[in-house]
Specification:
Layout: H1 3-11, H2 14-27, E1 34-38, H3 44-51, E2 56-60, H4 65-75, E3 81-84, E4 97-102, H5 114-121, E5 125-132, E6 135-143, H6 147-152, H7 165-171, E7 176-178, E8 192-198, E9 209-217, H8 218-221, E10 224-235, E11 241-243, E12 255-265, E13 271-279, E14 287-296, E15 299-307
Parallel strand pairs: 1-2, 1-4, 2-3, 4-5
Antiparallel strand pairs: 6-8, 6-10, 7-12, 9-13, 10-11, 10-12, 13-14, 14-15
Length: 313
């Protein structure tokens, strides 16, 4: 996807735009508040801050869209802006601001380095400063419909007498960006949080590698699990949130579908465990491992493990 197409999608998302405008409005004191915009892109969030009266905005962006941001700033008669073409984690000069805003969230929340960017960005804040977003939660839920799995798992239908199982195993070790629909899922009450990140400067920085295990009962899921859906919710301020839940109004972000190597057929007393290990350290990039376990009377009767690194063929 080209840079301008990405930003067309971002700026076409009115829910996102309104949420950030509301959040910025709540933390900016006209003619006093200084703002750092990390991953500024076209400069839209800094332009909102400028309109709301920010004393100064610093825009950090490593891509060439920073030139476009400068052009747009001139076209809109905006001053009190500083443009820096860099990756914020590499910036070593002194910079101290009242507000840091960074909308570097992906469909899989952490695919754009959001966690590491947000943790590092705390060094730019003055005491008592605000980080937007300041918290992120990731959710998971079993997918009980087979629509998404059928879209992905085409391998058994290719035919011609070919054994394509090796290719299938690689293909099914990927995270897929999909529009997950409520009808693909059990009750909304089955959603569980597997990753709860508090990024405020007063809290210890979250580790870039974390593991969490979730468990569901077949009584809540029904007879079959085809895969798992992931989504996120971010707190911009205490009262302003962004959600990519399939049960909430849609945004430009979609959900993540984690396929299974084989669907789970459940009996009434079965339980399903999902262990998610997420690793976004700089030397790793983005790695997600999902291990699925089916239990019956407390005993493991089926287990499968998938690793997004295996899918990177």
């Amino acid at each position: 996807m080209s840079e301008i197409e990405l930003h067309r999608k971002l700026l076409g998302d009115s829910a996102r735009n309104q949420a950030f405008h509301q959040a910025l409005k709540s933390v900016i004191r006209p003619e006093k508040t200084t703002v750092l915009d990390i991953g500024a892109g076209t400069g839209f969030l800094s332009f909102l801050a400028h309109q709301l009266g920010a004393a100064h905005c610093t825009l950090m962006e490593y891509a060439d869209t920073l030139e476009l941001a400068q052009t747009l700033a001139r076209a809109n008669g905006m001053d009190r802006l500083t443009f820096i073409q860099t990756v914020s984690l590499e910036w070593r000069r002194k910079l101290s601001v009242d507000v840091v805003v960074s909308e570097t969230l992906g469909n899989f929340a952490l695919e754009e380095g959001f966690l590491e960017t947000a943790v590092d960005a705390r060094r730019f804040l003055k005491p008592g400063g605000a980080l937007l977003p300041y918290a992120l939660r990731q959710f998971a839920m079993p997918v009980i419909g087979d629509r998404l799995q059928r879209e992905i798992d085409i391998w058994p239908e290719v035919g011609f007498g070919l054994d394509l199982n090796a290719a299938r195993a690689v293909s099914l070790s990927n995270m897929y960006v999909k529009d997950v629909q409520p009808q693909d899922l059990p009750s909304p009450s089955c959603a569980q949080c597997w990753d709860d990140l508090d990024l405020r400067p007063s809290r210890p920085p979250p580790s870039s590698k974390r593991t969490h295990t979730l468990r569901w009962s077949a009584a809540d899921l029904g007879a079959r699990v085809a895969g798992f859906a992931l989504w996120w919710e971010a707190d911009l301020t205490a009262t302003v949130k962004l959600s990519t839940s399939p049960f909430d109004p849609p945004t430009h972000w979609q959900q993540i579908y984690l396929p299974l190597l084989s669907a789970l057929t459940l009996q009434a007393q079965d339980q399903v465990e999902l262990t998610l290990t997420c690793d976004t350290r700089a030397e790793v990039g983005v790695r997600l491992i999902w291990q699925t376990t089916q239990l019956r009377a407390g005993q493991v009767i089926h287990q499968q493990k998938q690793d997004s690194f295996r899918g990177q063929l």
